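Supplementary Methods. Inverse-folding protocol.

Structures were first reduced to a discrete structure-token string of length 319. This string, shown here, constituted the complete conditioning input.
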């Protein structure tokens, strides 16, 4: 009898855990899980039944089951959306602004976390962290008010300073190209401090013995960052990158709605504001539900592709 056969023959039987005993032992954890699960069920899953509105002619006086199906086998409003120039413009702007956010804004929290980790003075480090976190707690309406005070061409502080130096006022908020740069800058400023928390937590989990061994071998500060810190947080970076790529076609409502104006709608109109104007204000519920469903499905495909690519490159991904 081979060793493999003996190992299979004398393999210890599997122990079946009684779920009642397990639940009794850890009931506090399940009690803590109840509220978030109830939130997801009530506000995320139950409303999904209304997705069918995208395939029907919406009527406020009829129940969902009584509404007639839309033309073209229920695809009428999807076809209508892709023949709508405003939607195509909003789709293009959403992808463009999110890609710029990703390219510019994704590395900055990592760099900031690396710099904070190297600061030797703890009190100064905590002060810098607090200042960097503060913008995250400001609403975009407040940030827009600050932007007006800083960037308006006539009486903005930045333009007044530029004119004092002999330059010309820059239309940060009035010209589409400059508005895009301002939009990205304000987004990075508002979020980079808060986003760095995850990377700082990951850096804190790296063993100090690795840095001590590197110091003994004569490694400098930048060598330690490159060969120890960055590889140590690579899994965290990849996971957050996968999640960011999954949201490449998604967009929040408050930021573009607060910062955009009629002069920059060429680049300021995104899917969320398109849905607000045509759905809530224009009462085109079937059309905007179709747009929202399209946005969600494409976002899932981006997420799956990014996760697959991460696993192909040797990382764990998010599942």
């Amino acid at each position: 009898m081979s060793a493999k056969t003996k190992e299979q023959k004398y393999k210890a039987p599997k122990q079946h855990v009684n779920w009642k005993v397990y639940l009794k032992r850890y009931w506090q954890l399940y009690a803590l899980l109840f509220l978030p699960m109830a939130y997801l069920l009530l506000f995320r899953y139950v409303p999904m039944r209304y997705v069918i509105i995208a395939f029907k002619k919406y009527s406020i006086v009829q129940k969902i089951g009584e509404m007639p199906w839309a033309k073209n086998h229920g695809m009428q409003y999807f076809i209508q959306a892709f023949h709508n120039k405003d939607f195509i413009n909003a789709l293009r702007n959403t992808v463009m602004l999110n890609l710029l956010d990703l390219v510019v804004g994704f590395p900055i929290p990592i760099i900031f976390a690396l710099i904070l980790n190297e600061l030797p003075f703890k009190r100064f480090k905590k002060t810098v962290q607090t200042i960097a976190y503060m913008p995250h707690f400001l609403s975009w309406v407040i940030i827009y008010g600050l932007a007006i005070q800083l960037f308006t061409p006539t009486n903005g502080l930045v333009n007044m300073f530029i004119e004092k130096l002999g330059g010309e006022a820059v239309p940060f908020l009035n010209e589409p190209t400059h508005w895009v740069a301002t939009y990205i800058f304000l987004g990075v400023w508002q979020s980079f401090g808060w986003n760095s928390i995850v990377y700082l937590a990951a850096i804190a989990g790296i063993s100090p013995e690795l840095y001590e061994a590197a110091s003994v071998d004569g490694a400098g500060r930048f060598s330690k960052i490159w060969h120890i810190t960055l590889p140590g947080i690579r899994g965290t970076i990849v996971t957050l990158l996968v999640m960011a790529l999954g949201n490449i076609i998604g967009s929040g409502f408050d930021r573009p709605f607060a910062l955009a104006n009629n002069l920059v709608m060429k680049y300021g109109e995104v899917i969320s504001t398109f849905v607000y104007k045509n759905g809530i204000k224009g009462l085109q519920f079937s059309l905007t539900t179709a747009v929202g469903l399209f946005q969600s499905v494409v976002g899932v495909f981006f997420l799956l592709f990014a996760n697959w690519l991460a696993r192909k490159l040797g990382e764990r991904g998010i599942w």
